[in-house]
Write a structure and sequence with these properties.
The complex is a heterodimer of chains A (421) and B (529). By secondary structure, chain A is an all-alpha fold. In chain A, 76% of the residues lie in helices and 2% in strands. With 529 residues, chain B is α+β, with helices and mostly antiparallel strands. Chain B has 4 domains: 97 residues, no CATH class; 99 residues, TATA-Binding Protein (2-Layer Sandwich), CATH 3.30.310; 144 residues, no CATH class; 102 residues, no CATH class. Chain B is elongated and about 135 Å long. Classes of the chains: A mainly alpha (421), B alpha+beta (529).
């Protein structure tokens, strides 16, 4: 039984979907009318989504930011607002073509998360600091979504601009072999040397739980980590500096983007009960990351094939000023960073001090948000002082959102003070 | 000279070291190391067999992790059981503080200088700037001056028939980074003070208990403790007719609720509508957690057995006394105090072997009944949820899950024997010296209540003030640094004597370069027009 706010959420969901489709059509047809319709659809979608948030607020009698669905919904809300502001300010409708799929992805994620309205907040959550803490953290993360999308366009564009930097056929074949051979060899090596990672992971096929897959999946996951992350690093190091710059950044972008999608899917599969993690820690961490890495593998292949198959017509149609993209990326992060710092860290710390007596207790989610903050701080310093612009900044923006997503689902495999969210 | 010779190398090493500390490279390296060790430490936490610090934790760790003594000693030396409070983590935080301090001191003079100087430039200097234009307009210099970019704070100079202007917008935002870094330094220092000088302890007690701790030299008496529950509402788990559990998914009119219940034998969930009076929302300690609204303790602080202060302590509303704060964190569900009573019990008295029924009678809680051999039976105790704990009978909850009555047989006020009788289980364990056995059949007027010990976190953190200053400075600093963008513009307007003017304009904006360039072009167009 869905309540009014969930119905409104779905109205926004479909409007954003329509907006996303229209923005995608704009890449092909390049008619001003199309992007105007797309932007209007997104803007109109904001109305039911805002209404959904308000309705939920009135029903639950507290700010609707007490679970992951509500958080993700607000994050997408912020991303849509930024999308509209950026289109208006920079007059580049293509920005919408890249942010709207991410917005829609966030909406899909939110739609799959449990949406129960909880009237009862545990005592520690009854503080106005929760409003500040979660609202600003979600808004900050929304801005990071925009930076990630823009960073991704940048890397695609730079790849397309540098035809010489595409992977030569032989290298691509070597990649394919590594991707397939490494995990299998690694897994059997583990077994050969007697490393058997026992796991209680349950995977449900058609609702029927199947156990005993954990060991295989974890082994395969670790192997994928080695093949998918380790090999590109080695490969990139082995290249001459001038050759590696664009290919490397492009490859990393796709790797990280694929990892990001894999993390989202793994989180959703867990929420949807498709797989159930072990009760035992730290095994559940291995299982969760194992799942991400397993999913990363096909995602990587899909991303690459999409890019290469549509290289001729798709990328050519993105006529973007790279400097502008770089500036939007930086702008989005400078909007998100203070919001995230004040929201996720300061307001959270002040609230913790009011509730439990210490600003900081090194709870896993606190450490997660601190690491995200350190990362973006490093990004800003590197950019400001070392002039880290262009591909480097774009990769960092994509990687930053991956960390945000991992931290978002962190409470599935870590306990701690955020386990109720 | 000798002195100079001796000190120069030292000074240069110190200068170099200081320069290293103030470099961005050093700060970024410390940040990266902090991030990496934080992530590793977070994962390490998941491997801990039990929480460090409890009784016998070291032996348990050694055993469960299979570590030899020397390896375990290394683990202890590096405080890997509590990495975030370890000496090496504090060294890292200290290095970060030092780096921040060096960075602030190195950049502060530069920022102050840039705020003071107007830096008026000549035309050739302007034209060397990356963003600059020169053009001639058909207006006199005075008319051109009316069209110069608005919103800037201009310094002006009139030299050799030309007007030189240097304008700045939101120059104050330049202090943003300094404020933000000073704020972060305060946070790091506050954190270090708190970990060096802070006190944190946990006390728990039932109403009436007087609590103390070596950390403080006064006592705290728990006067009362209560758990407040939410009224029936969406999302709560409730007990229906004391028989089965459902979840409230809708609230209808007339105090009627829509519930979702587990289907029987793992089938599909079922929905049903039930009147509110048939529902209970606090019935099981695990299910209760979502229904609890607040914990409230009334605490009296006592100094030398004299009452000093009595006040409420609630979640998010701590009690402050001297430099200590008492936080209501939770309650202790494992050590409840259950108080129960019943009005009377109907029982059947049998022969000692339980074969022959002697009589069926009703016994009140205060009274006694005479048995055929002249002895008297009385009710000595009643437990609603009987269980053995540490060899002694106790009640696991206040619910009538396993009600048991203790019968005691006396003669001339002297106990002969006693026997527990379980209402839901007819098994009777008769005492060896018993002449009768008793089976409780029904109880009347059962009342029970359960009290949990309150759990209070007592803290003393001397760095709190500095941390607050840090939050404020850093917030202001960040908003200045990121949301307000300083812009600068330089102009030279030279009259050419024929009613025309030659204009040189240059602009600089460190951030938002693209947006600033567009704005700059608009200024040029306006001045040309």
């Amino acid at each position: 039984m869905s309540t009014l706010d969930v119905k409104l959420f779905y109205v926004a969901f479909w409007l954003y979907f329509a907006g996303f489709i229209a923005f995608s059509l704009y890449i092909t047809f390049r008619k001003d009318q199309i992007w105007r319709i797309a932007a209007r659809l997104m803007a109109v979608g904001l109305i039911p989504q805002t209404a959904a948030i308000i309705t939920r607020w009135l029903t639950s009698e507290h700010v609707p930011l007490s679970n992951m669905y509500e958080y993700m919904s607000l994050m997408s809300w912020m991303a849509v607002i930024l999308l509209l502001v950026l289109i208006k300010k920079y007059r580049r409708p293509l920005v919408g073509s890249f942010i709207s799929p991410l917005v829609f992805m966030l909406m899909v994620t939110a739609s799959l998360l449990p949406k129960d309205v909880s009237m009862a907040l545990v005592p520690a959550l009854q503080s106005y600091w929760i409003t500040i803490h979660v609202t600003l953290a979600a808004l900050g993360s929304g801005a990071f979504v925009v930076a990630c999308a823009v960073g991704f366009i940048y890397l695609m564009k730079i790849h397309q601009r540098q035809p010489k930097s595409t992977i030569p056929g032989k290298t691509l074949k070597l990649w394919a072999i590594c991707f397939i051979a490494f995990p299998v060899v690694f897994y059997f090596l583990l077994r050969l040397f007697g490393f058997e990672l026992k796991s209680d992971l349950q995977i449900a096929f058609g609702g029927i739980p199947v156990t005993g897959w954990g060991s295989f999946l974890i082994g395969l996951g670790l192997a994928t980590l080695l093949a998918g992350i380790g090999m590109p690093i080695l490969y990139n190091l082995s290249l001459k500096k001038k050759d590696s710059s664009h290919f490397g950044s492009n490859f990393f972008a796709i790797s990280i983007f694929a990892l990001l999608i894999a993390a989202l899917i793994a989180g959703l599969l867990n929420t949807g009960g498709i797989f159930t993690l072990s009760e035992r820690s730290p095994l559940r961490i291995f299982e969760f990351f194992g799942m991400i890495l397993i999913l990363y593998w096909p995602m990587m292949l899909i991303c690459y094939s999409l890019l290469y198959s549509s290289k001729g017509n798709f990328l050519n149609r993105i006529d973007f000023n790279l400097d502008l993209l770089d500036e939007i990326n930086y702008k989005a992060i400078t909007i998100g960073y203070p919001l995230y710092t004040v929201g996720a860290l300061f307001a959270g710390a002040i609230w913790a001090e009011k509730a439990w007596g210490s600003f900081w207790s090194w709870d896993p989610k606190e450490v997660g948000s601190l690491v995200i903050w350190l990362f973006y701080s490093g990004f800003l310093h590197a950019r400001f002082q070392r002039q880290w612009k262009g591909p480097k900044a774009a990769i960092l923006a994509v990687f930053g959102l991956l960390m945000v997503i991992l931290s978002f689902f962190g409470n599935y495999f870590f306990g701690g003070a955020h386990s109720y969210t | 000279m000798a002195t100079a010779d001796n000190t120069t190398p030292n000074r240069s090493i110190l200068t170099q070291l200081w320069r290293q500390f103030s470099s961005m490279r050093f700060a970024v390296i410390v940040l990266i190391i902090l991030a990496i060790v934080s992530v590793i430490s977070m994962f390490l936490g998941e491997f801990y067999p039990v929480r460090a610090g409890g009784p016998g934790w070291q032996e348990m760790w050694q055993q469960k992790l299979g570590l030899s003594k020397p390896v375990f000693d290394i683990l202890l030396f590096f405080q890997l059981h509590d990495p975030f409070r370890s000496w090496w983590f504090q060294i890292l935080l200290s290095l970060l503080s030092l780096s921040l301090l060096a960075c602030i001191l190195a950049r502060l003079p530069i920022v102050i200088r840039s705020l003071r100087t107007s830096e008026i430039r000549q035309s050739d200097a302007i034209m060397k700037m990356p963003l600059s234009r020169s053009f001639t307009v058909g207006n006199a210099p005075e008319q051109v001056l009316e069209k110069i970019p608005h919103g800037f704070n201009y310094a002006r100079e009139q030299v050799e028939g030309e007007t030189r202007l240097a304008g700045s917008f939101a120059a104050i935002a330049k202090i943003g980074p300094i404020l933000a870094h000073t704020g972060l330094l305060c946070l790091a220092l506050g954190g270090l003070f708190a970990s060096w000088l802070g006190v944190s302890t946990r006390i728990a007690g039932l109403p009436g208990d007087v609590l103390t701790d070596p950390a403080f030299n006064f006592k705290a008496r728990v006067d009362s403790f209560r758990i407040e529950y939410y009224p029936l509402g969406l999302g709560q788990y409730v007990l229906v007719d004391d028989a089965f559990i459902g979840k409230i998914i809708g609230k209808e009119k007339n105090n009627v609720f829509t519930l979702e219940t587990e289907g029987s034998h793992g089938g599909a969930p079922q929905t049903m509508q039930v009147e509110g009076k048939r529902l209970r929302n606090h019935f099981d300690i695990n299910m209760d957690r979502g229904n609890i609204k607040d914990y409230v303790s009334v605490v009296t602080i006592m100094e030398n057995d004299r009452e000093v202060l009595t006040t409420h302590v609630e979640v998010n509303h701590p009690l402050r006394y001297k430099n200590f704060r008492f936080y209501q964190t939770s309650f202790d569900p494992d050590n409840p105090r259950v108080t129960t009573s019943i009005d009377s019990v109907r029982l059947v008295a049998k022969s000692a072997d339980g074969t022959a029924v002697i009589d069926t009678m009703t016994l009140t809680s205060q009274g006694s009944l005479r048995l055929p051999d002249g002895s008297e039976v009385a009710m000595a105790d009643f437990l609603p949820d009987f269980r053995m704990s540490g060899g002694a009978p106790t009640s696991a909850s206040a619910e009538l899950r396993n009600p048991a009555v203790l019968f005691q047989v006396n003669r001339d006020d002297k106990e002969l024997y006693h026997q527990w009788s379980f209402l839901k289980n007819p098994f009777m364990h008769t005492a060896p010296a018993a002449t009768y056995s008793f089976q409780a059949l029904e109880i009347f007027g059962a009342r029970s209540s359960i009290t949990y010990p309150t759990v209070l976190e007592v803290k003393k953190s001397p760095g709190t003030g500095i941390i607050w200053v840090g939050f404020i400075l850093m917030t202001i600093g960040m908003f200045l640094a990121f949301y307000i963008i300083p812009q600068r513009v330089w102009l030279v307007i030279r009259g050419s004597g024929t009613g025309k003017s030659e204009v040189f304009i240059g602009g600089y904006c460190q951030k938002s370069h693209h947006a600033f360039t567009e704005k700059f072009e608009r200024w040029v167009e306006r001045m040309k027009g």
